[in-house]
Amino acid sequence: MEIKFNGTFEDWQKHARRLLRMRTLPAQIVWIAEDEQQSFLPGQAIGTGESGLAQPLLSANENPLRVPKRFITLARNVSAFRDAGRWNLLYSVLWRIAYENHHLLKIETDEQVIQLLRMEDAVSRDVHHVHAFVRFKKIVDVDGERYVAWYKPDHKSVWLAAPFFAARFASMRWSILTPDGSAHWDGKALSFSAGVPNPPNGGEDGLEQLWCRYYATIFNPARTNLRMMRSEMPQRFWQHMPELTNLPQILARAPDRVDQMIVQQKKMPGAAKYVPANADLALLRKTIPNCAGCELYKCATQPVFGEGPREARIVLIGEQPGDQEDRAGRPFVGPAGEVLDRALHEAGIERSTVYVTNAVKHFAFEERGKRRIHRTPRLSEVTACRPWLEAELKALAPEIVVCLGSTAAKAVFGATFRLTEQRGKFLKTRFATKTLATYHPSAILRADTPQARENLYSMLLHDLAVVADESGKSISQRASTPALAARTGAGENTLLR
Ligand code: URA
Ligand code: SF4
Question: Among the listed ranges 4-8, 27-31, 422-426, which one has the minimum average pLDDT value?
Fold first, then answer.
């Protein structure tokens, strides 16, 4: 008989209990762990259960047979062993404990017991490796700081290893990604979610990018997912975890990097301390040259602050200054600015009536010979710079905010925002009741084919026309108000031909 289960100890335990009661012989069962055929579904909580660890496998009133506590601990540990045969072996030993010899585990010469103990040993060593070798990297995203690591244990050890980190780093938020599953700590509870099969790409940003992609899959679209997937592991369970019985020793030789991590955590990066409170635009503009909120000021020529009338009802947010903006000290004056000006004009918005700024105020680039090549700002840089953007938006209190491109959209809506899915829609944010994201003018310049360029431009134009119409409903800022369709229809767009 095939028994399909979700690959967790708890689910195996549930089936085993029932089969044992029915006196199903081990040889009659083929255990099929479904997680070993496919990866865990995102959001699926794994590895904890209401059954608890210390309960007898069979409670007294359902069956007089009881199983030693040690078996439960052993079985839980062995369930992390990477071998499909472990479930059969566990059931076989369970059967023998129940019907042949309650003290079977004490018989250390028993072939099956030996096998189980060897498996447990391997898992236990692996759990210690996870404790010792996991390297966290601090990632500052729009929700704050989180320490993230990717690690590939030999066995499915992340569930057993996680409580150690929860105890050690109780006040921090962290995530450990492994191919079999991922563990998360939010300061209060552990939760587990889908695995991440491949390591991050090399380079400083690899893990950050990996995390962003992963975060989007497990936490999107609404944070409610997080709550749904959260499965609490009460502290009282931890004491039953064998590898935690020697927690004090492990803590005693906690390596320096742990302390470094805590020291690092206290250093507050970002522009916050450079931004004067409740400042008007003039004061913000005057103080921004003092900012050292991230590394970018070191190589750029100057900060590029926003530009436009204080009364503007529409604020446009780009990514960061480009090469020409960096030299001129003004936003959108280079090639992307030309595209933007044209699109604004065609949409019926005069650029002089809107306020234009960027998510990041200093130019991020890489040097190739004499050329400075635009580099997309890191999430940490966007986050570092956000206090300036917030202060600007607070001073302006606009009716409509338009995010040009994904960097600006992430700065405003959060790191999980997906431009391709959510562009062109008015959404409410704390910056403006009407906040919308659309393509960046540079995306049009970078498009591979004339057709792609055309498509992107017409989407940008369409979205700006929507903005124009919306703002026209309250305050008229436009030179003229031709119908939306006429402005965005075929034949109108001559810019890129
Ligand atoms: N791209 C941007 O995002 N902003 C500028 O100011 C120029 C190019
Ligand atoms: Fe400050 Fe922003 Fe410049 Fe970084 S990019 S130094 S946070 S102004």
Answer: 4-8
Mutate to test the pocket of ligand 2, among 296, 319, 381, 386 (most ligand atoms within 8 A of CB): 296
Asked if the peptide bond before residue 221 counts as cis, ω within 30 degrees of 0, the response is: yes
Locate 461 and state its tokens.
């134009």
- 3-class DSSP string for 339-352: HHHHHHHHHCCCHH
Q: How far is residue 307 from each of residues 76, 135, 361, measured CA to CA in Å?
A: 62, 43, 12
Q: Which residues line ligand 2 (CB under 6 A)?
A: 271, 288, 291-294, 296-297, 303, 360-362, 384-385, 388
Task: Say how far apart CA 140 and CA 380 lie, in whole Å.
Answer: 5
Q: What is the 3-state secondary structure (H, E, C) of 107-118?
A: CCCCHHHHHHHH
The average pLDDT across 236-265 equals: 37
Question: Which burial class, exposed, middle or buried, applies to 316 when counting CB atoms under 10 A from its CB (0-12, 13-18, 19+)?
Answer: buried
DSSP string, 14-30: HHHHHHHHTT--GGG-E
Closest CA to 38 of 2, 9, 13, 7: 7
C-alpha–C-alpha distance, residues 429 and 144, integer Å: 18
Which tokens belong to 495? 């810019």
Residue nearest to atom 4 of ligand 2 (CA): 294
pLDDT at 288 over 50: yes
Q: Does ligand 1 have an atom closer than 6 angstroms to the CB of 163?
A: no
Q: What CA–CA distance (Å, rounded) separates 238 from 198? A: 29
Nearest ligand, measured from the Cα of 384: 2
Mutational test site, ligand 2, from 274, 288, 294, max ligand atoms within 8 Å of CB: 294
Under 8 Å between Cβ of 352 and 393: no
Question: Is 319's C-beta closer than 6 angstroms to any atom of ligand 1?
Answer: yes
Gyration radius (Cα) of the chain, Å:
29
Residue 452 clears pLDDT 80, i.e. is over it:
yes
Nearest Cα to Cα of residue 447 among 437, 458, 436:
458
Q: Is 142 helix (H, G, I), strand (E, B) or coil?
A: coil
Confidence (pTM):
0.52
305: its two tokens: 């602050």
Q: Which of 122, 126, 120, 67 shows the shortest CA–CA distance to 91?
A: 67
N- to C-terminal Cα separation, the chain: 68
Condensed to tens digits (0 to 9), the pLDDT of residues 409-427 reads 999 998 778 898 899 999 9
Give which of 55, 91, 98, 95 is closest to 75, Cα–Cα.
Answer: 91
